[in-house]
Specification:
The complex is a heterodimer of chains A (about 210) and B (about 110). Chain A is of the alpha+beta class and about 210 residues long. Chain A contains eight helices and five strands, in the order H-H-H-H-H-E-E-H-E-E-H-E-H. Chain A has one domain: Cation efflux protein, cytoplasmic domain (Alpha-Beta Plaits, 2-Layer Sandwich). The N terminus of chain A is likely disordered. With about 110 residues, chain B is an alpha+beta fold. In chain B, strands 1, 2, 3, 4 and 5 form a five-stranded mixed β-sheet that branches. The longest helix of chain B is centred in the C-terminal third of the chain and has 19 residues. Classes of the chains: A alpha+beta (about 210), B alpha+beta (about 110).
């Protein structure tokens, strides 16, 4: 386990980087507020931006995780949760950007088909978040994704709930990621490296009626 | 030279009719958006989001679209089908050669 003072993941952004990390001119905080307002009033500059949509969906899932963590043990976890959530927000912000164009094969010479790196990172994060008791910290595609057939490596940093068998969880996540990449990309995957960086308390379950008696 | 053809809105429909496509994101740069707005005003049609960019070039027509793919559909296959739908539509309505059809999957799920 990392020490309580150590952020789950860090991206040390200076001012220029923060500007560059804006999504369609919006900060991650603005997008979070937009979500909290139930996306009203509608803002086309957000709704028409794929980068903002990817970030909003990631934020929505993160809010759910936050709620369960906060209910688990506020006293013990709150300080660490804050830095952990902050670092994930930064990662969502960076990952949602469109990034490189990843080619999709087609037999026609007129076809120029691509999926953005941001869309692929979005699906990797979504797949991880859908894996029970896994919380994705960061997703990265290492290698030249722009050249078809070039073997690339996927790097995932994640946390699991305490008490979960880590090798089994990592294997389940890896299989889900392979399936998602095979379904949505033509990428040649050399490896999917998963680093479990932290353990988190399982959300508290209210005592059953039998236990209360 | 870039332009927005009258059938561009029909291309919108052709792309959105492909199973798995749930969003057509604006694909045009600002200058083309201004042209579309002018065309929309002249033709009294509702302002389009300029989701499909059609350019006349010496080699032929170039088309660019940016799509979102819904859950449960493979993005690669949807992307190929969008390309094919555009080509089919252009062959039906356009005499000019097709130089390039660029389809970008910008969001999945």
């Amino acid at each position: 386990m990392t020490s309580p003072d150590e952020p789950f993941l860090t991206f040390d952004l200076d001012t220029a980087d923060r500007e560059a990390a804006h999504l369609a001119g919006h900060t991650i905080e603005e997008l979070s507020d937009y979500l909290d307002r139930d996306r009203a009033p509608a803002d086309p500059s957000i709704d028409d931006s794929p980068e903002c949509q990817i970030a909003l969906r990631s934020l929505q899932r993160l809010h759910g995780v936050q709620r369960s963590l906060l209910s688990s043990d506020v006293e013990r976890e709150s300080a660490r949760s804050d830095s952990w959530v902050r670092s994930i927000l930064q990662n969502i912000n960076l990952e949602a950007r469109s990034g490189r164009d990843i080619p999709i094969e087609h037999s026609s010479p007129t076809a120029k088909l691509v999926v953005t790196e941001g869309a692929v990172r979005g699906i990797l994060r979504a797949t991880g978040d859908e894996t029970p008791n896994i919380i994705v910290g960061r997703c990265r595609l290492d290698g030249d994704v722009t050249v078809p057939g070039t073997p690339i490596t996927i790097q995932i940093d994640a946390a699991v709930y305490q008490g979960e068998p880590i090798p089994a969880k990592a294997q389940a996540l890896r299989q889900a990621l392979y399936a998602a990449l095979g379904q949505h990309t033509d990428l040649t995957i050399a490896a999917i490296d998963i680093t479990i960086r932290d353990l988190y308390l399982r959300p508290a379950t209210p005592p059953s009626e039998t236990e209360q008696r | 030279m870039s332009d927005v053809l009258p059938q561009a809105d029909r291309l919108d429909e052709a792309v959105l009719a492909v199973p798995g496509v749930d969003t057509l994101f604006p694909a045009a740069p600002l200058i083309a958006t201004a042209i579309t707005t002018a065309v929309d005003a002249l033709t009294r049609r509702a302002p389009s989001a300029n989701s499909v960019l059609v350019a006349h070039e010496t080699a032929g027509l170039s088309v660019a679209v940016k799509i979102g793919v819904t859950d449960g559909y493979p993005a690669t296959e949807v992307c190929r089908r969008v390309h094919d739908a555009i080509v089919e539509h252009l062959r039906e309505y356009e005499e000019q050669e097709i130089a390039e059809v660029a389809v970008t999957v910008a969001r999945i799920g």
